[in-house]
Structure formats: structure tokens, C-alpha cells
Amino acid sequence: MLFTERFQNRSRNLETLLVVDSMESQNNRTSYPNIDTFELTSEYVSFLEQFNPNIQENIVSAFNNEMARNHRRKNFIKTVHNLDTILLSLDNTKIELSKLTLEWLPDFKVINLGVNLCKLCLDIDFKLDDLPVSGNYEVNNVALQNVLPVSSNGAITVVYTDVTVKGRVGLLIQGDSFVPENYDVDYTWNSEVSVSYFINRDTKVEAKVTRPTDDQIIAKTIWTQLKEVLTTILKDQLKGVVVEYSVQESLADEDEKLRQLAQSQLTKANGLFDTLLCAAKDYLVAKDLRTIETPPFEVLYRGKLSSTETGLFESGNGYIKDLSTLSRLSDLSLFEDERQLLVYGTLGMREFKHGYDSFKTKFEDNDLTGSLKAQVRGTEIFVKLSFEKSEESPQKTKVEKIETRLLRDTAIDTSGLGSLSWLIPTTQSWVLGHLRSTSMDILLKQIEAAFSYAIEAEMKKTTTTGSDGDNSRLFWKSIFSK
Q1: Are 383 and 398 in contact (CB under 8 A)?
Q2: What's the pTM?
Q3: What is the mean pLDDT of each run of 10 residues along the chain (482 residues)?
Q4: Which end of the chain is more exposed for a tag (fewer CB within 10 A), N or C?
Q5: Which InterPro entries match (predicted)?
């Protein structure tokens, strides 16, 4: 059960309705969230805590059954997951990893799957089996090519071991279903990298390297993409189980107060986030950062691996636009305790365009120039904001986490290759590979800077002396329930 068709259609419709249009948001960019805080009584908290163990037991049992069902249906579900090409540059050394695949039957082993109705979240702790990623590598040195045209290529395997995923998943209430929507999770892992290549027709060499995680450049680069695959699968598997439980039946028809809490948290989280998002987009527009520059890339290539001729592909500087179309993709989640308030969820860009206005390439007798243009139709960027509950230390408010969760449906147009048209698919894989490994980090840093500016700007705006002579802390009072 990856999703019931009934709920999948409903979820798509809700996602469409909940996208925040920047023009609508601009109408409220000078106002603060109008929040009527709702708090549960101690009696109702005790009532909910009685139901936590039973709901938790049912969800854990259903989730484990789903994992077992995956094994029974392993010949009928997707077990081979393709990853995009990866480009790495280490000084003059260029590394290309291609045809990467993960062979893995979805199987999350439950260490803990706790239900917290009072906080409307799940606390998860899963362990995964070893994850083998296999593909091809090619290594070239630009300086060496001018003296001695040699390269190294072969097969590469990265095995991720001791993989765990822990964190918090926000629970929304949609209709009569609990919906796990926003995943504030972290992974831990170790890895082993092995390569194999032939030094002659009959002699195959195999080598392995095991290093601390922080020193594993190749494993860390692959992991950023692998994490997208794992999180997407986890979301499908967990949602398919949890949405089957009726809110009303699970709480014996005493669900109205929980619905009021859910609506209050939703309004608070969305209102706070939208206020900061509007200010962040104001910053991007004012600083002329709707379009940002991304680094160029350089690749050495061959027509065939056995070819004696090496080609050189060099792009100019790239770009990503339009950052002013950043939008909230769905309702956000909120977690609040005595010390802090956390708001987390996903952003997207309604118009995500990436490209290179110029490139040049030389191969045999061909000396060509052209351009590359890409449009990414599906983007998910996870953002987590934390707010310290301290009147004396508001400066501790910060962007705690920002990371790419999904890149999909990318259309790339290549012009100018002419007689090297056979290179077009490879060129497109380079663009996507460089976007993932390098350019997305530039985008994330810019978004983080914009939100940091927005937080500072709202702080200044709400701590200035008002007409009554008192310092106004309306912005902060509006987001804290206590």
C-alpha cells in the first residue's frame, strides 16, 4: 500500500489549493498573523494520552505488515532506483559518476514509532539494511591531458551501512484522516567505497577505501541524492498506513478539541512563515537577486571509452531564476515546548529556470558553441525555523535547517551541438548533475540569507518604540502561546 487512490487524489487537490500565491501574500506583507491561540485543557491532555498507546500500537503493526508485504511483492514493486549523473571537481581532477543505481527493497525497521497527539507529531527512529549504490566512474586530469592523454575508468560501488533515520513528523488533520506531512528527519550512516578496473585484457584490479564519514567526498555527494530517494519512499510508505485511521473513531467521537488545536497550530505556523517569506522575497527583489549566478563546469569526454580522441566541454557561468516565485507548498507543522517554537515544512519555486548562456566544446575537428536551458517543474526545499522563547534573547531566532528534498521533472534544451548531437543526452546529464552537486547549494545559501534578513527586519520592526511609548513585541507575542 503506497497510497490509496482515494487519498492520493484528495492530497493532490489539497496541495494545489494550498500553494501560496505571492501576489495574494503581498496584500498582507505589513501585517502580522492574526492568531487566536488554542490550548488544550489538562483534562483533555489526559484524555488524549490514554489513546496514544493504542494508536501507536496499531500504526506500528500496520507499518510492519506493510514492510512484510513489500517482501512478498518484491517481484512487482520498484526495487531499482536510478540516480542522476554526478560531477566532482578536485582542483584539476574531474570525476564523473554515471549510470548510478540503488537496488533496494523498501524496508524500514522500526526502532521507535511514537505517537504524540498533544503535539500532533510522530517521533520516528528507523534502521535500514545496507544500501549498495553501483555505477561507472571516469577520472580525468585537465593539466595531464595536455601532456599525456590518459584517463581512468571502471565500475564503482558505494555501500552505505548502519543507516538510521530519526526525527519528528508533523501530523495534519485533513477530513477524517491523520496525515504525516512534514518530515524533520536526520540520517546517520557509514560507507565503504570500492572500484574495479582492468589494467589489461585479463587482469582486473579491485580496491576499497573506508574513511570517516566527513572525509568521504564521493559517498557524501551521492548521499544527498540518495536521501531524496529514501525520504520520498518513507513518506509514501508511512502516509499510506497512517491515513487509514479515522480521527473520529480513534478518539471515540471526542475529536473536536484536537481539531481546534490542529487548526490553531496550522494558522500560527502558516501565518508566521508567510510573513517571513514575504519579507524574504522583498529582500531578494530589492537586492536584484531574483536571478543568481552559479559556477561553470568543465568535463573531459570521449566518443567511446576506447576512443583515442578526448573532447573538452566548458560552460560559462550559469544562472538560477526566479527566486521571487518561492512559495509554500502545503500547510506547515509546528512544535512548541517551554523553551522554543519550531516551524517546518517545504518551499518550492513556481518558476525554476536554470541554464548556461554559453558553452564551448572541442572534439576532433569540431569546435562548437551553444547554450543550455533547463526548467525544473518539481522542487521541494525543506526549511526549519526555530524561535527561542526568551524576551531577552530574540536574536537566537534562526534558520535551523534548509536542504533539498526533491528535484524532478526536469526539461533541458541544448542548442549548438550540431554534428555532435550524440552528445546531447550526456550534456543534459552533466547539467542536472552539476545542479545537484554544486548549484543547489548556492540557491540554498541565498534562500537562507533571505530568511535571516527577514527575521532581523521583522525584529527591528516589532521592537521599535510605539506611539504609546512602550516597546511593541507584537510579532513575538503573536507566535508564542505562553
Answers
A1: no
A2: 0.86
A3: 40 36 39 59 92 94 94 85 91 90 94 95 96 93 75 90 97 95 96 82 77 78 94 95 94 93 93 93 96 95 71 95 96 91 95 97 93 95 89 72 93 94 94 94 97 88 54 51 46
A4: C
A5: Mite_allergen_7_sf, To_sf
